[in-house]
Sequence to fold (331 residues):
Amino acid sequence: MPTAAVPAPVRRLDADHFTELTAIAAELLDIHSSATSPALLADLAPACRRLSRGLHDALRPVDTADGLFVLRGLHIDDTELGPTPGHWSTVGEAGALWDVVLLLVSALMGTPIAWDGQQDGRFVHNIVPSPGHERVQTGASSSVLLTPHTEDAFHPGRAHLLLLCCMRNHDHIATTAASIRLTKLSDNDTAELIRQVAPILPDDAYEVAQQFGGKPTPVPTLFAGEDGLTLRFDPAYTPLGEAPESWRAAYRRLTDELARVSVAVSLEPGDVLVVDNDMAVHGRVPFTARYDGTDRWLKRASVRVPGRRTRPETEAAEHGYGQAALEAWAA
Ligand SMILES: [Fe+2]
Fold:
């Protein structure tokens, strides 16, 4: 996908806020020993209430038409981090402090969620290139373009916000993002894409959901919300060939528009890219994995924002392919 060299909006955390955040994260990790402890998850909300008003303000949700911002100001020491794992399942407690920092940032913005069927139900996923997965359409890939998509687009319980925290990115591999609010679509195309025409199937990160026996549910691609258009888009997992030509033409024009407004963000260690999952799609450019312990490594968290009205009410009736989101407070 062509990308424009437009920088994403950057919010800077000052040194005091960095110190405050990492001190509380270290305290939580010290008490609970593991970043995956359910008791730690339960302690996130009370810990957030101890954080300063300045930090709460710095970590407010996305508030621009870009549908994203980069939070900059966390400092990660590459030499202390240890090698990039070769697969999410071998991460263990590597980078655990940053898991907790990311969970605190997530908890300030809403409710962190996880999935039973993905990465063993962890609330912070590790995105690393994995041998044998080079060409799949998941975060474990490398040599193919990761097509722009809504995260967990197949599911009505998907995140409102997606947080990608960069641990390491020596080769400056760009994450791409494109906001529906910056596209220009005709009224006819918008009306076409608001119709429920094609389903979005579970992606390759959800093996159990892919075995679900129920009938796929057609979903709208666009939704005209109170504040403007939102989208639900994952062409790699949408059976486009079964849709009528008029709809496919509108979908192609949307795809072209998203490519036109796309930005390429090369994350630096400590950067947290916050993407509004209703306003913007995200992807990644192709790269050659190193597989030597120095590969690109991101940590990912997903957040639901209570009371949001950015999706059609028809989503409430969807089966979600048998998957259910787990909420941090109830975990
Ligand atoms: Fe994604």
